[in-house]
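Work Package 3 (structural annotation) set out to generate three-dimensional models for the target panel prioritized at the project kickoff. During this period the team completed the workflow that converts sequence records into discrete structure tokens, so that structures can be stored uniformly alongside our sequence database. As a representative example, we reproduce one entry of 377 residues exactly as it appears in the project archive.
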Amino acid sequence: MKFCNTPPILLTFLTFLSLFVTAGIIYGNEPKRAIVVDEKTTSTQKSPTPKAKEPSQEKKKPRPKAIVLPKNRDEAVQLQIFLDQKFFGPGIIDGKPGTFTKLAIKNYNKSLNREKYDMRVMAEAAAEIPNIYATAIIPSFVVDYVDPTLPKTRPEQAKRKYMAYRSVTEFMAERYHTSEDLLIELNGAKTMKNASSHKAIKVPNIIPFKIEDLKTGRSHKLEINLTARHVVVDTNTKQVYIYQLIIPSDEENGAMKVNSTRPQLVASFPITPGKTRFIPKGIWNLKNSIELPVWRYDKKLLETGVRGKESLTIPAGPNNPVGIIWNGLTKSGIGIHGTDNPRTIGRARSAGCIRLTNWDAARFPTLVRPGAVIKIQ
């Protein structure tokens, strides 16, 4: 660089200035520093891992404080199907989740040792039940289980041989754990009104309750593992809880740690408990489990709790007031049984017994057997 006609002092200053510009160190225009690379370790050395924050410094995700139910009908049906198949009954599968669906979620979470408001169940339901609905062919034998002329008064019912369903719609609704209203919504009123054997309809994609597999008077006997379970009937939450005892063992010597035993919740279902004045609170045992029982209609007993001298025998069938199974307790006259009206579960009072939907009642002997402890509280 040449500086013409420039005084010596100024020339010296400009010379130093040019050197600073060449070096790129003008204030405000400093170049980025180069990364120093150790060539001996370049091929193997990994970039440093940021130091983990102390637990107290990490931001924890806020725990949910409530269960948020889906508003979309199909998502609700999907969730209800999932819970039902896991033996945590939400009641009728109708796409209108409420209190019983919330309780089913809490109970399901409890069985997995999760927080009660944990909502992973939604993703699990979507993964396990990708097809929410299925096409069902109405079976040919439906005519053997439907009687549109079934009377509603007890004296007239006592004259019949079987307490059948009153319509094919009722038959298919109970078979798929759902309501007649949802079947009508899915298929149309005309389709369901004309429903008959061999016709196809849309139903919730659930394992069906098969009434044809039941036998009148068949009794379920003691089974050591199922008899060892215990049942809690909670008349406040209107739930029946089924537990099995978990006894950890010492891996080294095989000894059982009795002090470490804990109850594990394996199933829960919504119920209709008996009238408060008739509820026999206390600890009992399951005495028997009988499919398709007849029912002794005793008006005085229902009204006062005292057995009367006059009664009627109502025949077996899904519309028998005690439903499709009787699980009698060692407390005389008290049992856990089905119902002729699943809509009333949790909404009405029975005389003194504990009512379940027929599809939940049918599963009871697969979970608990005679001899099991039953606590009513």
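The first helix runs from residue 8 to 23.
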